Amino acid sequence: MPSQAQSFSALRELFPKGDLVAALRDEAGLAAFRETLAAITTPDVEVVMSGPGGFSSTFRGVDGFLEGWRDWLEPFTSYRMELDPEPRISGDAVVLFARQGASPRGSGAAVTDDAASVAFLRDGKIHRIEFHLDREMALRAAGLDP
User: Any idea which fold 4-141 has?
Assistant: First the structure.
Protein backbone atom coordinates (compact mmCIF):
# COMPACT_ATOMS: atom_id res chain seq x y z
CA MET A 1 0.00 0.00 0.00
CA PRO A 2 1.57 3.32 -1.03
CA SER A 3 2.20 5.97 1.61
CA GLN A 4 1.06 9.58 1.26
CA ALA A 5 4.57 10.55 0.09
CA GLN A 6 4.60 7.70 -2.47
CA SER A 7 1.15 8.68 -3.76
CA PHE A 8 2.28 12.31 -4.09
CA SER A 9 5.42 11.23 -5.94
CA ALA A 10 3.41 8.98 -8.26
CA LEU A 11 0.91 11.79 -8.89
CA ARG A 12 3.79 14.07 -9.91
CA GLU A 13 5.13 11.37 -12.25
CA LEU A 14 1.69 10.66 -13.69
CA PHE A 15 1.77 13.76 -15.85
CA PRO A 16 4.53 13.79 -18.45
CA LYS A 17 7.02 16.64 -18.51
CA GLY A 18 6.27 17.20 -22.19
CA ASP A 19 3.05 17.66 -24.10
CA LEU A 20 0.10 15.88 -22.45
CA VAL A 21 -1.97 16.02 -25.66
CA ALA A 22 0.74 14.06 -27.50
CA ALA A 23 1.27 11.67 -24.57
CA LEU A 24 -2.39 10.66 -24.50
CA ARG A 25 -2.35 10.00 -28.26
CA ASP A 26 0.75 7.80 -27.99
CA GLU A 27 -0.04 4.13 -27.21
CA ALA A 28 3.04 3.69 -25.00
CA GLY A 29 2.33 6.96 -23.17
CA LEU A 30 -1.30 5.99 -22.68
CA ALA A 31 -0.33 2.53 -21.38
CA ALA A 32 2.10 4.08 -18.89
CA PHE A 33 -0.56 6.59 -17.80
CA ARG A 34 -3.07 3.75 -17.20
CA GLU A 35 -0.52 1.67 -15.31
CA THR A 36 0.39 4.53 -12.98
CA LEU A 37 -3.28 5.38 -12.43
CA ALA A 38 -4.12 1.78 -11.54
CA ALA A 39 -1.24 1.70 -9.04
CA ILE A 40 -2.09 4.92 -7.18
CA THR A 41 -5.90 5.09 -7.33
CA THR A 42 -8.79 3.03 -6.04
CA PRO A 43 -10.72 1.22 -8.80
CA ASP A 44 -13.67 3.60 -8.32
CA VAL A 45 -11.60 6.81 -8.13
CA GLU A 46 -13.75 9.90 -8.48
CA VAL A 47 -12.30 12.59 -10.76
CA VAL A 48 -13.68 16.13 -10.64
CA MET A 49 -12.73 18.74 -13.22
CA SER A 50 -13.66 22.07 -11.60
CA GLY A 51 -13.77 25.31 -13.55
CA PRO A 52 -14.79 28.90 -12.98
CA GLY A 53 -18.28 29.83 -11.89
CA GLY A 54 -18.98 26.51 -10.21
CA PHE A 55 -18.74 24.48 -13.43
CA SER A 56 -17.60 20.92 -12.79
CA SER A 57 -17.71 17.49 -14.37
CA THR A 58 -17.28 14.21 -12.51
CA PHE A 59 -15.81 11.00 -13.89
CA ARG A 60 -15.16 7.59 -12.29
CA GLY A 61 -12.44 4.99 -12.52
CA VAL A 62 -9.29 4.92 -14.65
CA ASP A 63 -11.33 5.18 -17.85
CA GLY A 64 -13.19 8.16 -16.38
CA PHE A 65 -9.90 9.78 -15.41
CA LEU A 66 -8.73 9.49 -19.01
CA GLU A 67 -12.10 10.65 -20.37
CA GLY A 68 -11.99 13.74 -18.14
CA TRP A 69 -8.51 14.66 -19.34
CA ARG A 70 -9.34 14.01 -22.98
CA ASP A 71 -12.38 16.26 -22.59
CA TRP A 72 -10.24 18.98 -20.96
CA LEU A 73 -7.55 18.73 -23.66
CA GLU A 74 -9.94 18.67 -26.64
CA PRO A 75 -9.62 22.39 -27.48
CA PHE A 76 -5.80 22.34 -27.44
CA THR A 77 -3.12 21.28 -29.92
CA SER A 78 -0.61 21.10 -27.05
CA TYR A 79 -0.75 21.28 -23.27
CA ARG A 80 2.06 21.31 -20.74
CA MET A 81 2.23 21.57 -16.97
CA GLU A 82 5.00 22.81 -14.73
CA LEU A 83 4.44 21.24 -11.33
CA ASP A 84 5.34 23.01 -8.10
CA PRO A 85 7.87 20.90 -6.17
CA GLU A 86 6.21 21.48 -2.79
CA PRO A 87 2.89 19.80 -1.95
CA ARG A 88 0.49 21.23 0.59
CA ILE A 89 -0.76 18.49 2.91
CA SER A 90 -3.83 18.44 5.13
CA GLY A 91 -4.76 15.15 6.76
CA ASP A 92 -5.49 12.74 3.91
CA ALA A 93 -5.48 15.45 1.23
CA VAL A 94 -2.51 16.51 -0.89
CA VAL A 95 -2.63 19.76 -2.90
CA LEU A 96 -0.29 20.16 -5.84
CA PHE A 97 0.03 23.51 -7.62
CA ALA A 98 0.83 23.70 -11.32
CA ARG A 99 1.32 26.26 -14.05
CA GLN A 100 -0.37 25.19 -17.26
CA GLY A 101 0.46 26.33 -20.75
CA ALA A 102 -1.61 25.43 -23.79
CA SER A 103 -2.02 26.25 -27.45
CA PRO A 104 -5.70 26.44 -28.45
CA ARG A 105 -6.71 24.94 -31.79
CA GLY A 106 -6.89 27.57 -34.51
CA SER A 107 -4.80 30.11 -32.61
CA GLY A 108 -1.13 30.90 -32.70
CA ALA A 109 -1.23 32.40 -29.21
CA ALA A 110 -0.40 30.26 -26.21
CA VAL A 111 -2.30 30.69 -22.96
CA THR A 112 -0.94 30.16 -19.45
CA ASP A 113 -2.70 29.94 -16.13
CA ASP A 114 -2.35 28.63 -12.60
CA ALA A 115 -4.01 25.39 -11.60
CA ALA A 116 -4.09 22.95 -8.71
CA SER A 117 -5.08 19.39 -7.96
CA VAL A 118 -6.30 17.95 -4.69
CA ALA A 119 -5.82 14.23 -4.14
CA PHE A 120 -7.80 12.65 -1.32
CA LEU A 121 -6.26 9.45 0.00
CA ARG A 122 -7.83 6.36 1.51
CA ASP A 123 -5.65 3.45 2.59
CA GLY A 124 -2.71 5.07 0.78
CA LYS A 125 -4.46 5.35 -2.59
CA ILE A 126 -6.23 8.24 -4.26
CA HIS A 127 -10.00 7.75 -4.03
CA ARG A 128 -10.92 11.24 -5.21
CA ILE A 129 -9.00 13.84 -7.16
CA GLU A 130 -10.12 17.33 -8.02
CA PHE A 131 -8.53 19.51 -10.70
CA HIS A 132 -9.07 23.24 -10.12
CA LEU A 133 -8.31 26.39 -12.09
CA ASP A 134 -8.58 28.34 -8.83
CA ARG A 135 -5.81 27.54 -6.33
CA GLU A 136 -7.73 29.04 -3.41
CA MET A 137 -10.66 26.72 -4.11
CA ALA A 138 -8.26 23.78 -4.15
CA LEU A 139 -6.80 24.77 -0.80
CA ARG A 140 -10.28 25.18 0.69
CA ALA A 141 -11.32 21.77 -0.67
CA ALA A 142 -8.38 20.24 1.20
CA GLY A 143 -9.30 22.07 4.40
CA LEU A 144 -6.37 24.49 4.18
CA ASP A 145 -6.56 28.25 4.66
CA PRO A 146 -5.82 30.02 1.36
Answer: Nuclear Transport Factor 2; Chain: A, (3.10.450)
